[in-house]
Amino acid sequence: MGKLIVFDGIDASGKETQSRRAYELLKSEGREVMYLSFPDYGDESSALVRMYLNGGFGSDPGVVNAYAASSFYAVDRYASYMRKWRAFYEKPGAVIIADRYTTANAIHQLGKLPREGWAAFLDWLWDYEFGKLALPKPDLVLFFDMHLDVARRLLDSRCAREGAVKDIHEADPAHLAASREAALFAAEYLGWTSVKAYKQGSGGPVHEERDELNGRIMAIIRGIL
Questions:
Q1: How many domains does the chain have?
Q2: CATH code at 110?
Q3: Nearest CA to 145 among 185, 109, 172, 175?
Q4: What is the DSSP code string of 114-173?
Q5: DSSP secondary structure code for residue 45 in this structure
Q6: What are the pLDDT digits (tens) for 65-98?
Q7: Is pTM, for the whole model, over 0.85?
Q8: Which residue from 10, 70, 92, 112 has the least number of CB within 10 angstroms?
Q9: Which residue range is the domain that position 185 belongs to?
């Protein structure tokens, strides 16, 4: 079997930028590597995810409960695995870099539940996706710990630059805050590798320098390859 390395964190934590850099670096070293991003927006398997994020069930993320929303994403992952990367993953020495995975359900859905139910939800989620659906378990989860103030600024900047409309997760400050709290719990409970993605600047928290962050990440990744 290959290695599955997952990058995850709250919105605008830098996971997409860093996961792509890791992929390109490993590829340049001659490794057999594949890049994945979830949800698979280009495939019909993500129809329910897109409906949910675009407000098809309501503009409040809490309208769709944590278990139902998690199922939307899990089915999309299952379809992607069965049709697009199962054979590659089964090759010895193969490396898969994933921008989000089952971990994203832990981050974005966990906060919808009362805190006393968080551990039970994570146990259910891991059994559902890795037991019932038999999806591969990650060999490494890199959790990007991003300060809320920095994430909000980066989200606003990205949407203004790209002329994009925020989805119901990105547009809800309370959801973003709940996601970070849930992510910190999940990272500890599930044993993720935390990577601090911000630092203190003269005027407050700012994004960590990309090269510095990339250096730390690649050292971790090479440690398991």
A1: 1
A2: 3.40.50.300
A3: 185
A4: -GGGHHHHHHHHHIIIIIIS-PPPPSEEEEEE--HHHHHHHHHHHHHHHTPPP-TTTT-H
A5: G
A6: 999 999 999 999 999 999 999 999 999 999 999 9
A7: yes
A8: 92
A9: 3-222
